[in-house]
Amino acid sequence: MPATQSDTAIHRDLILPELIAQLATARRETDDLFRIVRPDSLYERPIAERHRIVFYVGHLEAFDWNLFHERIPGLKSFHPEFDRLFAFGIDPVGGGLPTDQTSEWPSIVEVEQYVRKIRELLDEKLGEPIADSRPPAPDESQLSTLLNVAIEHRLMHAETLAYMLHQLPLDRKLRQQEYLQLATSPVEHRSIEVPAGTATLGLPRGGDAFGWDNEYEAHRVDVPAFAIDQYQVTNRRYLQFITEGGYETRAFWGDADSEEDWNWKSRQGISHPAFWRREGNQWLYRSMFEDLPLPLDWPVYVSQAEAKAYARWAGKLLPTEAEWHRAAYAAPHGDERAYPWGDNAPAARLGNFNFASWNSAPVNAFPAGQSAFGVRGLLGNGWEWTSTEFAPFPRFEPFPFYPGYSANFFDGKHFVMKGGSSRTAACMLRRTFRNWFQPHYQFVYAGFRCVSR
Ligand SMILES: [Fe+2]
Fold first, then answer.
1. What is the strand order of the sheet 383-389 is part of?
2. CA of 132 to the centre of ligand 1 (A)
């Protein structure tokens, strides 16, 4: 039934203010995150391949500004140099490292002024009744999409910045309270059979739900039967792989004709996960604010290359994106759920996500979040690597206002991750959300579980 004029008015009255409120909440999230950095450390570069922290302070606002100011009449750029300086991040695929010096960046006072001014100008404009805008101003649906892009772009940075600040030396951070208190029992690993069936991937076009360009379009995939680990691989299990010479055995790091992973590991001198540190004969875990004795039941966080090496050692494989979907969302009688636990929205008792913690939790900490097949810990507590190359779904179309968001990464050098981490916002726990990274990046809150076919 077509919407009546009054339906449309109600829709407009509710949706845009709600999205504007969500943008304000997302801003608070990123503001809080920058506050964990000691003020004298904002020009540090915690990860060699990435920008200095100060870039991100300016980037979140420059992105919003560049997105809106060209599309909403009446917004005039007041600092084009900063609009360009803070426009783009870095994706570290095999390139050289950035060489910029601290002195090349503007003062934090100037950057914060730029941020404040953008917020004032955008909030004033977004608060105006949409009826006052004249073409070529965006209509309500276009404005909703742009707001969702701004909100999720910021929330994604809230997560990737947490990875980055994780690597900042502990004495350069202001310790925050850890608020997740969990009582768990020992983890008993087992494998769960998932019968052959279909998985629905992607979003149908034309619906109300927001999705990024790479989530379209919806399509069904036939998936043969497989068995999957009930839990993510833990630090305990990964330690066994290391103890048994996992990093020194060439056969685990690819076939004889694929040397990339082995060469990467050897060249970089990598012999353990980036989140671990050796002190004497003890392994420590580099958590966000302190080094802990290795928490054996937490998921291990590693690059995809390390995950694949473990899987070969275990005589297993990484799941495909479609297998992961089956394990997470399918039910024995053929229906599919919105979330592993059912159709209810994410809640704190269902998983370690939505900024619930600065760190991981034991892999068996949230039994209420299990899937219909009994697979646990699928959402939150660490993304999960799949073996699927990040590529477009059928009938992919890039967003015209952000053409490179996904298309720049359809290069055979990035792989899909599913799930989420403790720092993944609830809105991005939707079934169709796809994350991706290159296989040699060790600093993501990403682990894995294995399958057998
Ligand atoms: Fe960005």
1. 435-437, 415-418, 383-389, 446-447
2. 30
Q: Are 203 and 216 in contact (CB under 8 A)?
A: yes
pLDDT of residue 5: 42
Rg (CA), the chain: 22
Collapsed DSSP state (helix, strand, coil) of residue 150: helix
How large is the average pLDDT for residues 307-320?
98
- Give me the pLDDT at residue 207, please: 85
Spacing, Cα 292 to ligand 1 middle (Å)? 32
CA–centroid distance, 88 to ligand 1, in Å, is 6
Residue 9's pLDDT band (boundaries 50, 70, 90)?
A: very low
C-alpha span between 369 and 341 (Å, rounded): 5
What is the rounded distance in angstroms from the CA atom of residue 170 to the CA atom of residue 18? 37
Rounded distance, CA 138 to CA 267, Å?
Answer: 51
Strands (E), 113-211: 191-194, 197-201
Pick from 274, 271, 263, 267: nearest CA to 303: 274
CA–CA dist 217, 371 (Å, integer): 24
Copy the structure tokens of residue 421: 């981490």
